[in-house]
Amino acid sequence: MSKLFDLTGKTAVAIGGNSVLGSSMALGLAEHGAKVAIVGRNIEKAEAVVKEIEANGGEAKAFQADVSTKESLEQLAVEVEKWSGGWDIILNAPGKNSPTPFFDLDMDEWDDIMDVNLKGIVLTCQIFAKKMIEQERKGSIINISSVSSTTPLSKVFTYSVSKAGVNSVTQFLAREFAPNGIRVNAIIPGFFPAEQNRKILSEDRIASIMNHTPMNRFGNPDELQGAAVWLASDAASGFVTGTLIRVDGGYGAMTI
């Protein structure tokens, strides 16, 4: 049974792999044998994740890229291909947030968040999935969504809209890439104290979150590893595509 989750011989490209949640999932992929490209705008943070993976006996390399620009991602693909020859897993975990009220929102901020959270995933899939198809590599694309994608949250209008778009992109591309043996799924994390949401976690907001989370706590980033490894592995390779997997402490099941 353990062989189903063995990622030995596979290469993963972790976009946003230097973030709190992205790095944890990247570590999980590496611990199961994957060679991991850690990609982020902050190369120092990416290199720190690489060191952690290497300290655990894994193999990884840090790469710098801006997911909002096609040219940057095209150059990234060239560099990763030189390093690994190709890739089998794409983890799309870029993230940007803002608490700006709707009527105060200007389009520069809207574009900035959309460029990272949604456009970045579209561009990454265009470039990296195309190369997988050209190399006849079957594999897995894992997009990181949010509970706000299905039930919009207060104070994070643009973020919520962008993540709803991620869900739609995930299901569209699952249909698009299925004939090529490439599966596309999304993980919907609940509330994890990541960088982009710390600034809006007031005492009242935390209380509201706990009241809507049956497990009555924040998630630990390591609790996303199981879903990521499963979706990347042969355990899900047969028939799992176009799914939105919740790891949210029951948030999505809560009403009153």
Automatic annotation (TrEMBL):
InterPro entries cross-referenced by the UniProt entry: NAD(P)-bd_dom_sf (IPR036291), Sc_DH/Rdtase_CS (IPR020904), SDR_fam (IPR002347)
Pfam families: adh_short_C2
SUPFAM superfamilies: NAD(P)-binding Rossmann-fold domains
The enzyme's E.C. designation: 1.-.-.-, 1.1.1.69
Name recorded for this polypeptide: Gluconate 5-dehydrogenase
Keyword Oxidoreductase listed: yes
Keyword Magnesium: no
Keyword list, A-Z: Oxidoreductase
GO terms, biological process: carbohydrate metabolic process
EC supergroup of this enzyme: oxidoreductase
Native source organism of the sequence: Lederbergia lenta
Family: Belongs to the short-chain dehydrogenases/reductases (SDR) family.
GO molecular function, one term: gluconate 5-dehydrogenase activity
